[in-house]
Amino acid sequence: MSETELIRRVEKLERDNRRLKGFGLATLVLATALTTIYATQSVPQKITAHEFDAVDDSGKVRVSMSVNSADMSRIQLYDAQGRSHVDMLVAPYDSQPLIALSDAKGRNSAQISVNQGGWPAITLFDPTAEVMQAGVMIDVATSGEPSIALYDAKGSPQSPRIARIGVSSSGAPVITLADANGFEMDLGSTGTLNAKTGATEQTSAASIVMFGNDEGHHVIWKAP
């Protein structure tokens, strides 16, 4: 190899070395700049979307948050098999909030709701009924009257209450027992119609009143 050729190769190596040093320096500067940007970037205060899903490690949806085309806002919680067990929603047409809890078979087991008039209620459903049937309901009427109602088993959704414990807005307690034939017995303070005067009389907490199943629901026996 001639001396001229050797000098040319040495100069080429020096130029390549300078270019590599320049590239390395530029890469280092860029990496430092990106690190600084992401390190100082603040956490976003709000994320806006029509729907959001949270998934587990296998990619299955476990939490779903959405607002559908009918403007119903909804949050659902799922188990590992994809069954919804908690359903929280607000209906758009009447703004009634509702939380429904389902069992392992997907049947509605309990719900907490507030109706359009502001009447809050907790309902427990009969797990053996073929159709969704309330078993126990705890509620407070908008007039301020709290009550616990028990319904007959395996009946239709329109089945009557067979037992109820309540307190009137004036503080008068009453326990009501009823059967499928329409007969009823009230223990405690209840309103009865005076046949002679036509006025409604309030009995004491120590009274027992039995009502017939006729259209007028007349008193058939009472004490005292």
In words, what does this structure look like?
- The chain is α+β, with helices and mostly antiparallel strands and 224 residues long.
- It has one helix and 16 strands.
- It has one helix spanning 3-40; strands at residues 51-55, 61-67, 73-78, 84-90, 97-102, 108-114, 120-125, 134-140, 146-151, 161-167, 173-178, 184-188, 191-193, 200-202, 208-211, 219-223.
- The longest helix has 38 residues, at 3-40.
- It starts with a helix and ends with a strand.
- The mean pLDDT is 80.
Summarize the structure.
The protein has 224 residues and is α+β, with helices and mostly antiparallel strands. The protein is built from 1 helix and 16 strands.
Secondary-structure-derived class? alpha+beta
The gross shape turns out to be elongated
Number of helices: 1
Q: Radius of gyration, rounded?
A: 36 Å
Low-confidence stretches: none
CATH class category of one domain = Alpha Beta
Helix content: 10-25%
The proportion of strand residues reads 35-45%
Order of the strands making up the biggest sheet? 1-2-3-4-5-6-7-8-9-10-11-12-15-16
Order of helices and strands: HEEEEEEEEEEEEEEEE
Q: What do we call the CATH topology of one domain? A: Outer Surface Protein A, domain 3
Mean pLDDT: 80
Biggest pleated sheet: 14 strands, antiparallel
First-last Cα distance: 132 Å
Quaternary structure type? single chain
Secondary-structure arrangement, i.e. CATH architecture of one domain: Alpha-Beta Complex
Total strands: the figure is: 16
